[in-house]
Amino acid sequence: MRYLEFHEYLKKDSIMYSYLTKKFNKHNERIFAGEEVKVSKEHIAVVKKGVLVKESAEQRKFFTRSFFQETIIVPTTHTIILRALEESEIAFIKADEVFEKLEKEELLSNLFLQVAEKLEADLERQEMLAVEFPENKIIETLYFISISYSSKSLKLKLPSWLQIKILARFANCSVSTTSSVIHNLHEKGIVNIMTSPWQLNVEALEFKLA
Predict the structure, then answer these.
(1) What's the whole-model pTM score?
(2) DSSP 190
(3) Which H or E run contains 207?
């Protein structure tokens, strides 16, 4: 999924996000960087601000899912534990109220489709990370984080919290491999890691992705 396609997806995602935040009573919760928050199947959560990740069950080594601003979280069979990468804000809405109202207004299938698309994208990303070479994984991950973090802005940017250890967890690589690859990409002019936050060379990045 390239940037313009992703931009269209985000616009569609924002429609349901706006509907949920405007039409329902909600409980807002602030989560500071490094803190955890639980989302049970009794609630639907919308990320109003920030970035939250789901860590792998195995030693919490990698991030298996991520939720950026204006995304919707719908647990199905169990509670999801998320960790904030920056100060974040989540709105919790009672799931039964959402399902009842959306069903009456014939919008419930729209919510389920959106959740399914998000899950499918996450699974495709995990499959890619399992088979690609480290450099490709790092490049695709930089691209993924930049378009996700930039939200509806047409200007790609990277977050200030993105450093080698965090990038390694997103890309399913070791820290040593990530460090070697990112310094190589810096030498190639694809990403400048001497600034804070890091800066992408969009033209070089698009060339590598083509």
Answers:
(1) 0.86
(2) S
(3) helix 202-209
Residues with Cβ within 8 Å of residue 35, at least 6 apart in sequence: 83, 84
Cα–Cα dist 22/143, whole Å: 31
d(CA 45, CA 42): 10
The predicted-structure confidence for 167-201, as pLDDT tens digits, reads as follows 999 999 999 999 999 999 999 999 999 999 999 88
Q: Give start and end residues of each alpha helix (H) in 56-194.
A: 95-104, 108-131, 134-149, 164-171, 175-187
pLDDT tens string 137-155: 999 999 999 989 886 666 7
In the chain, the amino acid numbered 207 is F
| DSSP states of 52-86 | EEEEPTTTT-SEEEEE-TT-EE---SS-EEEEESS
The 3-state secondary structure of 5-50 reads HHHHHHHHHHHHHHHHHHHCCCEEEEECCCCEEEECCCEEEEEEEC
Q: Judge contact between 209 and 143, C-beta under 8 A.
A: yes
